[in-house]
Amino acid sequence: MNATELQEKLFYKKQSVYEKAGEAIVAEAYAFAEPYKEYLDAAKTEREAVTVSIEMARAAGFIPYKLGDALVAGGKYYYNNRDKSLYLFVIGTRPIEEGVRIAAAHIDSPRIDLKQCPLYEEAGMAFFKTHYYGGIRKYQWVATPLALHGVIVKKDGTSVTVAIGEDEKDPVFYINDLLPHLGHEMGKKPLDEAIPGEKLNVLIGNRPYIGADKDAVKLNAMSLLYEKYGITEDDFLSAELSVVPAAKARDIGFDRALIAAYGHDDRVCAYPALMSVLGLEAPENTVMCVLADKEETSSVGNTGMQSYIFPDLLTEIAKALGGNPAVVRAASRCLSADVSCAYDPNFPEVFEKRNTALLSCGVVLMKYTGARGKSATNDASAEYLGWLRSMMEKNGIVWQSGELGRVDCGGGSTVAKFIGNLNIDTVDLGVPVISMHAPCEAIAKVDLYEAYRAFVAFLHA
Question: Which residues contact 32 (CB under 8 A, 6 or more apart)?
């Protein structure tokens, strides 16, 4: 065996999906990306993602589940948790104590939320006060078209859904930036300090209500809201309204290999995980897709991954099928479906290239996430990684290893640690992203599709 052959046999190297998988898989990937873009445009908040996902689940034969319901082999069920997180599961033919196959993603994304008393007027302009949600780079959100999404629960208990800025005929909203002619001192500040959080005020109007002696622009804006939605200013106290980018998902480049969109983190994993479960018919193991909320704010609250609803569901499924919940958890396996950063040659100083995912080299398997010293990481076992490697190689999945930046240079966490805490074998597997947490992120279509193929193989393994 010559040196070239020996290197080919012994060395590990990442390979492009285009090189390794072939034209048929690439064509399938490009086709798979089209409905994914539609999903992104329809699901810019976790509430919208739940609504759209339930519509898809019902079309695939899933029925609502309540805690304590009877379950049958082959049954397809979904549990809607307060319209903000969703659990879908299909009962397998094997005994439940052989474990559940779980694909867990999150459907919330960094954004800007309205404060509870948001509306005010200054210098003939009406604004909304805001509080940003998750890790954003605040300077990226100014001087760009924005849309308003959410729900308002009125004092009489009725609710109205809001989605303004997505239709071409809709108005958009806007956060003012300082012109460069007057921005010399601002330009000297670090990026994280140039736009303070309290300056992320959303411009919503400029026309006064004729006859008002004060707050005339605010009054005009409020009168328009009352006319359209029947709300008064105090109804904002019981509202969840978010400001998100108004742009649609679009292809990038002459070759259309990439997708630019808001919310790839983490709907680029949620969508293929969801699709992998929707397409199942009578699997051997019971399978579950988790679409969780609040990951961007530490997974707390009753719709986050730390909520008791997830172990409660596993317990109820086990009991309904005559199994011991502790035995079921110990035998279960999970893919924590969350994104990783992709190596960006424009910023090589923050990456360690050998251990960073590359665009179009397949789905990313991350043994650990966390930050400095592996803090707050699940850190999957070698045995579980070995099983997954074998599974993916057997099914021809193009995959790569990854890590979130250089040691001591940052890091991040996922829902994996909360699932691992339940004595479930868990590892992070997802799609590499350029410009993660930006209002417009980028991913490769072939990586999206390899994630879907990995979830399908995992759920059947």
Answer: 445, 448, 449, 452
Burial of 7 (0-12, 13-18, 19+ CB in 10 A): exposed
Residue 19: count of CB within 10 angstroms of its CB: 10
Both tokens of residue 304? 């986050």
With the C-alpha atoms ordered 222, 231, 293, 270, is the resulting torsion angle positive or negative? negative
Under 8 Å between Cβ of 135 and 141:
no
d(CA 252, CA 255): 8
The 10s digit of each residue's pLDDT in 73-110 is 999 999 999 999 999 999 999 999 999 999 999 999 99
Calpha distance 226→119 (Å, rounded): 14
Quickly tell me which residue has 């849309």 as its tokens.
147
Strand order in the sheet with 333-336: 63-64, 76-81, 85-90, 286-292, 100-106, 333-336, 425-430, 363-366, 399-401
Which of 139-171 are b and which e, b meaning 16 or more Cβ less than 10 Å from the residue's Cβ? ebbbebebbbbbbbebeeeeebebbbbbeeeee
Nearest to 53 by CA among 267, 283, 282: 267
Is CATH 2.30.250.10 what the domain over 111-245 is classified as, yes or no? yes
Domains of the chain, by residue range, sit at 3-109+262-460, 111-245
Rounded distance between C-alpha atoms, residue 117 and residue 236, angstroms: 6
Residue 410 has pLDDT above 80, yes or no: no
Please give the average per-residue pLDDT across 322-332, as a whole number.
Answer: 97
CATH no. for 3-109+262-460: 3.40.630.10
Between 18-22, 138-142, 245-249, 261-265, the lowest mean confidence (pLDDT) is in: 18-22
